[in-house]
Amino acid sequence: MIPAPRLRRLVAVLAGSVLALGTALTLAPPAAAAPPGRVPVISPTPREVRAAGPDLPLAGRVAVVVGTDTDPAARDLLLGVLRERGARPQVVEGAVPRGVLTFHLGGPERADVRDALGDTAPVSDEEGYALRVTRGGGSVGRVALAGADGAGQFYAVQTLRQVLTPRGSGWRVAGVEVRDAPAMALRGTIEGFYGKPWSQAERLDQLAFYGQIKANTYIYAPKDDPYHRERWRDPYPAEKLAELRELVEQAAANHVRFTFALSPGNTICFSGESDRAALLAKFEAMYAAGVRAFSIPLDDIALQFRCAADTERYGAANQGTVGRAQAELLSFVQREFVATKGDVYPLQTVPTQYGDLTETPYKAAWREYLDPAVVVMWTGTDVVPSSITVEQTERIRELFGREVFVWDNYPVNDFAQTAGRLLLGPYDHREPGLSDTTQGIVSNPMNQAYASKPVIFTMADFAWNDRAYDPKVSGAQAARFLADGDPEVAAALETFVDLNHAAPRFNGENWLPQAPRLAAELARFWDRWDADPPGALAELDPVVTGIEEAPALIRAGTEAGFVADADRNLTATTLWGESLRAAYRLLGALDTGDADAAERARAEMDRAAAEAAAVRSEPGKTRIEGPVKIGDGVLDVFIADVAALHDRSMGLEPLVNASRGKQATAISQWGDGFGPERAVDGNTGNLFASSGREAQPWWQVDLGGAFDVESVAVYNRTDCCTARLADYWVLTSERPFPDSLDAALADPAVTKVRRDDVAGVPTTLPWDARARYVRIWFPGDDARELDLAEVEVLGRAAS
């Protein structure tokens, strides 16, 4: 049963605004209550919903009619919802009481449920349901909750929860008719990231959350659980096994399929009898613990053999032979374990080649040797794709010879380009119609379980009804869900999501843009500023206030887990809000000609921006750590533009990043995609790397002319463990450097500083020299690899 505070919150949040009688449902901003004859917002968006009659008051004694076909979890949920709304439910079987509001929960074949449905056609699709609210005599009425199966009944109650709307001091049941079923069979998450796994409390909370949003799948596959990967042969210790049993029970109570995954690919002998027996023994133990869904992911491993038996059976390791060995192992498990049980879902797997659309001998081997029942997962056209289309899924279905199940690597933040980020933007760029060509979609979430909820909410919305999905509307609904129904907190969450909207790919490019709403608001400000400064400032003021106030509202109004996950990002947002408010005051002072006020505001703006940029992600929380990113490329650019405006007002040339886009060279480079230009392209998500084959490697940028340099910022490569850029020299000069480091260090015309940095930390060095050339140079006689994410040289063109 859902705890009372959560029940209070869910109705308030998801009982939204309304539509006219008879119209198709479109999600809209929530109102306090739905007027009679209107349809409240329901998430996920139902297939069919309409106003069907007057609302019914919910008060006092009500009857809940159940039968042997009633799902226990749905029954408990219904009773909890009704009690939370102030009703006193009485459970009855058989004869239907008269004179009270009656809820009929069960399958559509049961006589009382069928009668309560009236002319509403039942839904026969798996997990489908029909809900009908009708008035009886006087104020008495009936509510039919007819599920095609137990999950359908459970989801019918989840929808009922959202059509209970506050009215005066009580509650009413909106007079609606809903016919609904999911478009995709599998909807949920895979805990498949690297780094700190979720805690037991986080997993239990997630499973309850999935039931609320009608997600039905959770795949247990944390890379850093040693018994999942490295020690896959070993049985779980008793304490850990008890935790897994608890998760299985929690999943069942919320109609979530708990899928246990084992990832043996790094060490298994595919044809070895002992390893096959160990695999089945591990699955048997989990079956005894209540698990009825299993997966064998083979991602992120080398295509090679690890025992002589495999080489003897299949020949030398290559794509075709290893592909066949994998397929035969999976088919063995499907045949010898899954098929023998009778109550186990088809085996799931992730191929080693999981993120492309290329025909290969590996995929051909899977088409030929993999049992047709095995479900294959696919991540899209890349590990983190910018989009997934129907055409792409049709092609991958041809390549693997079956319909795929999408493992979407969003909002996972376990790779370097996501360092310091929470990925909160609503699910997007996945084509409507994927429900026709895929078995479903699961999200690979962040290490931050609670902070992953906004995205998971929207992904579940898409997977339930992809053709009716609207990312902006779904994102707003997710904010209201997390805000406990408080409109101010919901607005603050939407602001916070906008500032954490960026979703990078492995190449450092964002497939979801950063702060799109703020970017549009600031663009409007600058468009108006020259002609009407007071008017532009008046429009900007509420934008600044929204960012200033968002962190405190979120800390006070959302669950503790979300606040803990977002703590560093909220702290950075507070500081950026201070910098933005100071920028607002600076602009006002420039408009009125108050130079002293402008100077004071400038100092405050710069101070707060520097402190904001220095906030780092929580150590140990994610695999990759780094400076927290808030509205980057938007907020910081606005602050820099205001600073430049202030400089011009004082007759100074504005500070510029003199290195951006300039000619960069290096002693060598690692390969394609790691050239020296990567360190001056404005993107800290990619990097330059030298070959690692020479002593004293160097990288250099030619600024194209002399600049009076005020600072040099060196961005170390973001790394999970060590500083890749450590013990190095930063050198500047107006003339080309000598050929050797020793000669450069001895040259009095060269300005130099020696540094030793921490992984992922940008180092800003105050500078006071005129220079055209900037070089990063490693000392020492051993061959070393020089890595740089970015080098920024701030200065003014020399007169």
What does this structure look like?
Strands 11-12-13-14-15-16-17-18 form an eight-stranded parallel β-barrel. By secondary structure, the chain is an alpha/beta fold. The longest helix is centred in the last third of the chain and has 26 residues, at 567-592. This is Hyaluronoglucosaminidase. Its EC number is 3.2.1.35.
Topology diagram in text:
Layout: H1 4-14, E1 48-51, E2 56-58, E3 60-66, H2 72-84, E4 87-93, E5 101-106, H3 111-117, E6 129-135, E7 141-147, H4 150-163, E8 164-167, E9 170-173, E10 176-180, E11 186-191, H5 200-212, E12 217-220, H6 238-253, E13 257-261, H7 273-288, E14 293-297, H8 308-314, H9 319-341, E15 348-350, H10 361-369, E16 375-378, H11 390-400, E17 404-408, E18 438-443, H12 453-464, H13 471-482, H14 487-499, E19 503-504, E20 510-512, H15 516-529, H16 533-557, H17 560-565, H18 567-592, H19 595-614, H20 635-649, E21 656-657, E22 663-666, E23 688-689, E24 698-715, E25 728-733, H21 741-746, E26 751-755, E27 762-777, E28 787-788, E29 790-797
Parallel strand pairs: 3-4, 3-5, 5-7, 11-12, 11-18, 12-13, 13-14, 14-15, 15-16, 16-17, 17-18
Antiparallel strand pairs: 1-10, 2-9, 6-7, 6-10, 8-9, 19-20, 21-29, 22-24, 23-28, 24-27, 24-29, 25-26, 25-27
Question: How many structural domains can be distinguished in the coordinates?
Answer: 4
What is the CATH fold-level name of the largest domain?
TIM Barrel
Strand order of the largest sheet: 11-12-13-14-15-16-17-18
- Which regions are unreliable across 5 or more consecutive residues at pLDDT < 50? 1-34
Query: At CATH's second level, what is the architecture of the largest domain?
Result: Alpha-Beta Barrel
Report the sheet-strand fraction: 15-25%
**Number of strand elements:** 29
Rg is 30 Å
Please outline the major beta sheet: 8 strands, parallel, barrel
Mean pLDDT: 92
Q: What structural category arises from helix and sheet content? A: alpha/beta
In whole angstroms, the N-to-C terminal distance is: 73 Å
What is the percent of helical residues?
25-40%
